[in-house]
Design goal:
By secondary structure, this protein is of the alpha+beta class. It has two domains: 108 residues, Lipocalin; 119 residues, Glycoprotein, Type 4 Pilin, CATH 3.30.700.10. It contains six helices and twelve strands.
């Protein structure tokens, strides 16, 4: 009789443990960081079936599992306007992956640091793929243009540090400095907002770029910061179709 009772207890306990381990809630409970924005958006799933979103939007609601492969989110407040959100989901190798009905994939990881690393890796991979598609010789021309601009940008920085303001074309010392270091393809303009621009026309490029009929330009625009220094931004007509030619190259001038 004792053996039968013991065997029955084991069967009941085993059934309970297996049932609990198959509960999808046990797998995804916790805090998850969105890789798409480097971990700024956070989704926290709780054991009681509630969910809390934070980041660009603060929302709360509940989650359920319509079947073994899908999760449903029902948000409250302003989130209710989106209606029920159903995703195909999977959990593997420390990643919680959601796929919506349109096929868009959302990857979540357990820490903000990992989300930042994953996003950086993704951007690097995307940039390498885009760079591989660029017309041959374009990056070399961009680097040539940046070599022409670099000493002029440095001269603007030096003038600003010495005089506490940006130069303008009426400054005799500044005009002389520019004449000594500037190339004919580099132009400097603006009063109080000194822009440094380099222009390569189509004949100078020697490249077949049908959508850049006049060539290309790169312009650096300074902004005065609170710490008494200049911060530079890069603007170019390349940043639309040929943005990969700028990324990683303009960085050596921007600061």
């Amino acid at each position: 009789m004792k053996k039968i009772y013991l065997k029955l207890c084991i069967i009941i306990l085993t059934t309970f443990v297996v049932g609990c381990s198959n509960d999808p809630t046990n797998e995804i409970v916790g805090r998850w960081y969105d890789v798409d924005d480097g971990g700024k958006s956070v989704m926290e799933l709780f054991e009681d079936g509630s969910v809390q979103m934070s980041g660009e939007m603060e929302m709360s609601g509940s989650y359920t599992f319509p079947d073994d492969n899908h999760i449903r989110l029902d948000m409250e407040g302003i989130g209710a306007l989106m209606g029920p959100m159903i995703f195909e989901y999977s959990l593997a190798s420390g990643e919680l992956i959601f796929k919506d009905t349109k096929g868009k994939v959302y990857v979540h990881v357990p820490t903000a640091v990992e989300a930042k690393v994953r996003l950086a890796e993704r951007k690097k991979s995307d940039l390498e793929a885009e760079t591989a598609q660029l017309p041959k010789g374009l990056i070399e021309k961009v680097n040539e243009a940046l070599d022409l601009v670099t000493p002029v940008v440095a001269a603007v920085d030096k003038f600003y540090q010495s005089n506490g303001r940006l130069p303008y074309m009426g400054d005799s010392n500044w005009v002389r400095t520019v004449d000594e270091i500037s190339d004919s393809r580099v132009s400097i303009g603006g009063i109080g907002t000194t822009n440094v621009r380099v222009m390569f026309n189509k004949s100078e490029l020697g490249l077949n770029l049908p959508d850049l009929k006049r060539g290309f330009y790169i312009r650096f625009e300074p902004t005065e910061t609170e710490n008494g220094r200049l911060s530079w931004s890069c603007v170019s007509d390349l940043q639309y179709k040929y943005a990969a030619a700028l990324q990683g190259n303009c960085v050596r001038i921007l600061r």
